[in-house]
Amino acid sequence: MNRAILIKGVQWQGQPTDLLIEGTSISRIDSSIDAPDAIRIDGQGKALIPGLINAHTHAAMTLLRGIGDDMPLMPWLKEKIWPNEARLTDDDVYWGARLACLEMIKSGTTAFLDMYYKLPATARAVDEMGIRGLLSCTCFDHFDPALTERSKREIQTLFARMSACNPRIRFALGPHAIYTVSGTLLQWVDAFAQEHDLTIHIHLAETEDEIQNAIRQFGSTPVRYLHRLGILSPRLSIAHALYVDDEEIRILAGEGVKVVHNPASNMKLASGAAFRFAEMRRAGITVGIGTDGCSSSNNLDMIEAMKLASLMGKAWRKDPKVLAAADMLAAATEQGADILGIRAGRIEAGYLADLCLVDLHIPAFTPNHNFVSNLVYAANGSCVDTVICDGRIVMQNKKVPGEEEILRQVNERARKFI
Hints:
This protein has helices at about 75-85, 90-105, 120-130, 145-160, 185-195, 210-220, 220-230, 245-255, 265-270, 275-285, 300-315, 325-340, 370-380, 405-415; strands at about 5-10, 15-20, 25-30, 40, 45-50, 50-55, 110-115, 130-140, 170-175, 200-205, 235-240, 260, 285-290, 355-360, 385-390, 390-395. It is α/β, with parallel strands linked by helices. The strands form four sheets. Strands 3-2-1-4 form a four-stranded mixed β-sheet, with no helix packed on it.
C-alpha cells in the first residue's frame, strides 16, 4: 500500500490548495488538510497540473535520435530506421525505453501509448521507472500469408506473457499501417481486440503518398478502406490522420474512433500541416496529442508538443482564435486519458494520482497573468519540478533516481550506430 502524500499550499485554479493522495488516487482537495502521517510536499511557488499523456510514441527510438534527420518519411523508414531497428537487442530496447521514461518524467508525462518491438523489454523499463504504459505490439505481415500466421502467434504469446505485468502496464495491438499490414491480419487483430477488450493503435492517413497508394491498391482512401474492412470502432486509435475529408471525419466520429495529433513529426518529416483538429472535436472525436518517436520529433516533451499543435493549427488556418491553450492542455490530459482508457487527466477526488508540480519561479511564468497560456506558449518540459504517478513520487526537485546510469548506458549502446 502506498504511503499517503499531502501536497501543501500548491497553486490550483488560482488559489493556494492542499491535496491529499491515499493509495493510488486523489482522495481530497481543500484549502487546508491535516494528515500527520502523510509524506509532505511543499507546494509553495509551484502549480498543480494533471500528469501529461503522450498518446503516440515509440519509446525505444530514443536510441535512434538524430539518425536520418531531414528526410522524407518513406526513405527515412527504409534507409535509416528499419535497418537500424533490425540490429536492436532486447537490452537495447530496455535501455532505450528507460531513457524515454526518464525524458517523459522530467517533462511531466505520466502515461504513454507506445508502439514498438520487443514488448517485454519496454514493459520492464516502464515497470522500473514507475509510470504508465499502454504498450502496443507492433505487427507487420507485408501481405505475406506466412508472416500473417507468424504475427498471430506472436500476438497471442505476448498477450499471455503481458497479463502478469504490473497494472500500470497494459497490452495493446499495434498493426503498423495499411501499407505494411494486410486486410486479413487487420481483421484478425480487430477480432482479437474485441474478444479481449484491447486497444488497437495504427498509423493512418499520414502522407499524401499513402492516400494515393491506398486508392490504387485498395480502391479507396485509408479511412474508407478500414471502414470497409469493418475495423473502425471505439477500440481503435489512429496516429496522424492528416488527410481526412469531411465525410471521413463523420465516419470516424460515428464509429467512436480516437485520433492522435503529432505536430512535431508531421512538420519535421514534411508530411503535412493541415491537421483538422477543430473539425474533429466539433464532430465529437476524442483528439489527443503525441510526440511520435525521438527519431522523427527528436524529443518527448509534451509541453512543447502542445505549443506546436496550437501554433500549427493557427498558422495554416490563418486564425489566431482556434486551438486555444486550454484546448491543448485538455488534449494532453483528459483526451489522452480517454484514448488510453484510464481514469486520469483531471485533478478531482477519485481520479488517479498522476500529477505534476510546475516551478513558477522561472522566467516563463514571470509575470503569471495566465498560467495555462504560460504553460503552453512560454514554457517547456524543464518547468516540471515534481512528478507523482499512481500515488508514488517518481521525480522530486527535478531529479529522478538512477538517471545518470541511464544516460551512461544509452551513450555506450548508441556508439554502435555511429
